[in-house]
Amino acid sequence: MSELTISRRGLLAGSALLLASTALPTIGFAQTPKKGGRLILAADSEPRNLNPAIVASNGVFFISSKIVETLAEASFDGKDGPEPRLALSWEGAADGLSVAFKLRDGVKWHDGKPFTSADVAFSALQIWKPLQNLGRTVFKDLEAVDTPDALTAVFKFAKPTPFQLIRNALPALSSVVPKHVYEVGKIEDNPANNAPVGTGPFKFAEYKAGQYYRLTRNDAYWGKDEPYLDEIVYQVLPDRTSAAAALEAEEIQLAAFSAVPLADLDRISKVPGLKVITKGYEGLTYQLVVEINHRRKELADLKVRQAIAHAIDKDFVVKTIFLGYAATATGPVPKNDPQFYTADVPTYPFDVAKANALLDEAGYKRADDGKRFALKLLPAPYFNETKQFGDYLRQALAAVGIDATIVNNDSAAHIKAVYTDHAFDLAVGPPVFRGDPAISTTILVQSGIPDGVPFSNQGGYKNADLDALIVKASETLDTSARTELYKEFQKKVAADLPLINVAEWSFISVARDTVGNIANNPRWAVSNWADTYLES
Amino acid sequence: MTRAFTLIRRRLVGSIFVLLLVVIGRFLLLEAAPGDAVDAYIVSTGGDAGMIELLRHRWGLDQSELTRLANYLWALLHLDLGQSVTFSRPIRDVILERLPTTLVLMGSATALSFGLGSALGIYAGARPGSFRDRFLSIGSLALYAVPGFWLGLVLIVVFAVDLRWLPIGGIETIASAKTGFSRASDIATHLVLPVSALGFIYLALYLRMMRAGMAEAWRQDFVLAARARGLSRRRIVLAHVARNALLPLVTMLGLQSAQMLGGSVVIESVFAVPGLGRLAQEAVAGRDTPLLLGIILVSAVLVVVINLLVDLAYAFLDPRVGAGEARA
Q: Does A289 contact chain B (CB < 8 Å)?
């Protein structure tokens, strides 16, 4: 769990204590949550659609996970992965053709109507499968949802579907919305997409564009005594420096999703009354990846890709770019994943001499000016760290005689250039690991994906072996056999380097000491916050 | 009065062509930018080929550029600005919601820089070459050289974080349910820092222009004549020297209003003010062409109106300026 802790010594001493007090509420000073209060926190973007059943993304969950709940939520100690939310239990049939959910009794929608299996069936068949960005893949074979009674929903699949995948997908993909609100008119145009109605601990109250979102307590919430807070207000702060200043001025009490830049954390951790928290994002791991265009003759050569991997000093990247708030990567599954990760893969230690030798072997000798060949490098602009890594990579490549030119784009232009136009040689991307390789990881190396699909293999890489393995894993029902196949997958990817995994990172929260029960599950920032409280 | 009407009529006819050119030009420029609204959208969601095709179809992006431009112009003819894809709302509503904020911010900042700038300019220009003249000229130049966002951040750190006299950002206390006078004073408190950051930068322009104009006027014969007539120094400074130096400042006011709209993009971000500038930035990042065109249109109308007012003021201040003759 602790791959993503702090490496800087001074910070470690200070925040380890804080971690103990927040992550493990039983041993801290703040055992009894207080009721009431308004939590104000920073939001750096305003999602255009707040319906998490349609848009399963962290930006949407950050706000709407408090309003609309999923069937299950990730947990630090749930032995079968997630812990119950709207579903109490889930069981997969041995033939992989059905999964049965027992639903929670006595749950009411915010408009007072009862929550039933019909809502689950409607959400799954009318929204997750046809409309949801991730659900369209995971639930593609979902054929029907039987509802023998109001509290049972049985998912029926046309083709055997691994139960492990469905279980791992529950926290992010299973937001349930009310059938009675959505069955009239076009789902995409429903006004509830911007003013969600759910079963969660908080109700949507108002949204002032450019200013704030306000959620109020759901007095009829099913959780005993929950929620503790009266209100949650997301203040829109588009400028990152202002989030740190607003925390210091006590205008907000929490900045999640690294709204405070890494470079400011050292200073802000010394401000009395503020704490820096690195836990609570284990289920939202981002991967720093070098995407490779295999259409380039040089890059189609495995030796060249190995040389590039050897040329990157991953420790330096973690220490200097991420200031220690990251971990080095070995392959396409992050180290902090409890189910699939294997360290038993080919590795590429930092070795400039070896990189040079490999390039010589591949036949790309240095010319008189010391350069072997030139290429175009497109760092994704979404994070400071991806841009900084782009600058680093250019230098690292120069050291082995590869002359990279950086091409900077804004987000829309980057997406178009890399995933539609393929106008890149190397790109730096931050794909997300979503708890199961089949959700959004295998797509990064699989062949046959149409042009224009973002965060997928658009580098023209084709490996029949790997493709076959991916298909086999997607049909393997037995959990341990499936897990083994994904370990095999990691080995193959690390050996053939369709892309190069450099580091893995998550986000940081900064909060006032008065905010309690922070970071108590691996997807905390995007969970329902029913137990979050404020000391006065 | 007919003078003014002729002026207004002439200006409006010319403006319509200007606006049309602006719209078509911007449309083509934005189309040339790589990536469309769907590309911008899927950055935060991902999605498969089918979903992307569906989105392009829903947002009308599968039509050709010309069709879309024609549709836009046709709708515009009916005073319909269209639907924003980033906000899934009518663009008119989105803009009207933000317009007052930007007008208040810009208006106050312009008033501050014009008022304080010309006052200090008169003070400095009353005695060109004196110590106070040198001090003010150099001081204002230094302010002018400061980047707006940096000045904003410094003001935040000093007055909001350290001293805690003023709020850090926003246009009013969030979700406070204040009304009437207490709301107005709340908004005013929130505006102090952004208005200062925006206004102080442009202050130097007015100060220096006023000062230079006055230094020039001092050498004119009419000043000598006024002195000979035994007018008080105060009267000479205000009624003769300063008044003659004022005209270029009024011209500047019109020109600068356009600049201020651009400058407010940065200041609105730093101070989290929900205005037009930030909206424009979001529209560009989201490749929301109709929204950006709407903002540009509204800004262009704004600039045209302000310049019209400036012309009228000019005609009022300087009787030589008439509708029938060319203006300098």
A: no
